[in-house]
Amino acid sequence: MMTMPRCGVRDKVGFGSDSRSKRYALQGSRWKVKALTYRISKYPKRLNRDDVDKEVAKAFGVWSEYTDLTFTAKKSNPVHIDIRFETGEHGDGDPFDGPGGTLAHAYFPVYGGDAHFDDAEQWTVNSARGTNLFQVAAHEFGHSLGLSHSDVRSALMAPFYRGYDSVFKLDSDDIQGIQALYGRKSGGGSSGSGSSGPSAKTTKAPAAPREDDAMCKDPRLDALFNTGDGSTYAFKGNKYYKLTENAIADGYPKLISDGWPGLPSNIDAAFTYKNGKTYFFKGSKYWRYNGRNLDGDYPKEINEGFTGVPNNIDAAMVWGGNGKIYFYKGSKFWRFDPLKRPPVKSTYPKPITNWEGIPDNIDAALQYTNGYTYFFKGDKYYRFNDRTFSIDSADPAFPRPSAHWWFGCKDTPYQYSGNMELETQSENEDILGNFDAGADDDRPAHDSKYEGNSSTTHKLLANVLLPAILLSIYRCIWH
């Protein structure tokens, strides 16, 4: 991540909205007026001036869409925000470093709000090539308005350049941040940048439950995956949903065919590999995308690109435990290592029961940005602890309803009564989980029904701890 192109504004400036969760951060200053002016005092060398004017106005419009801020371009000073394209040392003591690295930097309102862009970059308009001017400008203007960098990787105000997004939309985290400074949009009208603002009902987070959404009525998934920029997407039928930290992002679902041109509906599985490219699977074929663009002559046959992996898989993911690709189908799974020959060892497939507590025939699997591994089946999901190699212990227990916890459906249960599929574990497996020395959660030290009975304790040592040691050895060998 440190080698990725990024904003030059330092991280961890100001305060977040909630110390317990990753949220937007406010620098602490804001403009006292909402009618702001700007000027492009120095244009880039390799772009048409009219194109730059349009992209800058469009970038300001990102923020006026959700607030009563207006932005008016002027040809001369004085203005609130001055915009310049510079190279190297340019008079502010913070020199640019050439192509890549730092793309731009901007000053918070208390320091004037000006925005500087590195003219050594290959700035582009509506293209996946080079560096997209609109998206970087929208990010920098967030700083000019008082927003610091967000810890939410899918947010526009995340510090790293996410790459060109042809269907760009402001993340709910960004919206909450800018509205914390300037309030919600009070009505329609001019945004001050040449475009009409939306009505008030489109500017605020939905207050009503999502009970009418298809995902709330039937939360079963086809696929779930992260992209190279840290965004999380869920596929279902011919539609896709972008997920925030705790719900579905505003404006979704959208058609898969619009988001990933050339990709069919009803995808079986998807994952993004360490090279930043995303792979989609359906039936006997797979597709590879670089961002939203098809990356070559696809589809191709699974048995050609992923030798040893079956067709019609249920789920796939890159597991954080070892960086290998795992495929799941029915009651079995396969480990794929592209650096080995053959990439799938002869000891595979292996039973899914090796992933303690995970059911057969899962719908999706994901290594999420918080470091946990998640498995989805039907309307439930399981959080997997990679250190203990078992379902994570928490209150409420897993599995949990995905509609409430992942998709923000407020009128749905937040937990299930009973252990559901956990009841299929044997008595010894339940106790074994309570004795796992690698856990750091709040599970009880041991099952209360074994207290105060020495003979039972001896049985426990014989029947539980010995198998636990053997199982630990087995896991080491298996990995």
Features:
479 residues; alpha+beta; Collagenase (Catalytic Domain); Hemopexin; 3 domains; six-stranded mixed β-sheet; 9 helices; 30 strands; globular; Pept_M10_metallopeptidase
Please explain how this structure is put together.
- Ca(2+) 4 binds at residues 222, 268, 363.
- The active site is at 140.
- The protein has 479 residues and is of the alpha+beta class.
- The protein has 3 domains: 6-202, Collagenase (Catalytic Domain) (3-Layer(aba) Sandwich); 214-424, Hemopexin (4 Propeller); 426-479.
- The protein is 19% helix and 23% strand.
- It has 9 helices and 30 strands.
- The chain has helices at residues 49-64, 133-145, 172-182, 214-217, 256-259, 302-305, 402-405, 427-434, 454-478; strands at 6-7, 15-16, 25-26, 35-42, 70-73, 81-86, 102-106, 115-118, 123-124, 131-132, 189-190, 196-197, 223-226, 232-236, 239-243, 254-255, 269-272, 278-282, 285-290, 293-294, 300-301, 315-318, 325-329, 332-336, 350-351, 364-367, 373-377, 380-385, 390-391, 400-401.
- The strands form 8 sheets. Strands 1-7-8-6-4-5 form a 6-stranded mixed beta sheet, with helices on one face. Strands 17, 18, 19, 20 and 21 form a 5-stranded antiparallel beta sheet that branches.
- α1 (49-64) crosses α2 and α8 crosses α9 (454-478).
- The longest helix is centred in the C-terminal third of the chain and has 25 residues, at 454-478.
- The chain is globular and about 70 Å long.
- The two termini are 27 Å apart.
- The relative contact order is 0.09.
